[in-house]
Automatic annotation (TrEMBL):
One of its GO terms (cellular component) is ribosome. This is 50S ribosomal protein L7ae-like protein. The keyword Ribonucleoprotein applies. Keywords: Ribonucleoprotein, Ribosomal protein. Gene3D superfamilies: 3.30.1330.30. The keyword Iron-sulfur does not apply. It comes from Paenibacillus psychroresistens. Residues 4-82 form the Ribosomal protein eL8/eL30/eS12/Gadd45 domain. It comes from the Bacteria. The lineage of its organism: Bacteria, Bacillati, Bacillota, Bacilli, Bacillales. It holds the Pfam family Ribosomal_L7Ae.
Length: 83
């Protein structure tokens, strides 16, 4: 279950800007993308992940991804970060 990985991660970056920074820095281990997120938000991040060789995992909804991240609002993207 992908949500478990997010919940158990020591560090996560939530949101497009934060996740993008981590991917570019080579610190993102895996990126989770909500299937119901706006493609205008997710397309660039997914392309960056492919370029940088970061695994992309799709999850069912922004609401559930946000919940797994421990926030009250939906999240389109969350990155599990390696320190």
């Amino acid at each position: 279950m992908p949500y478990e990985k997010v919940k158990q991660a020591d560090k996560i970056s939530i949101g497009t800007k934060q996740a993008t920074k981590m991917i570019e820095a080579g610190k993102a281990q895996e990126v989770f993308v909500a299937k119901d997120a706006d493609p205008r938000v997710t397309t660039k991040v997914i392309a960056l992940c492919k370029k940088m060789g970061v695994q992309v995992t799709y999850v069912d909804s922004m609401k559930l991804l946000g919940k797994a991240c421990g926030i009250e609002v939906g999240a389109a993207i969350a990155a599990v970060v390696n320190e």
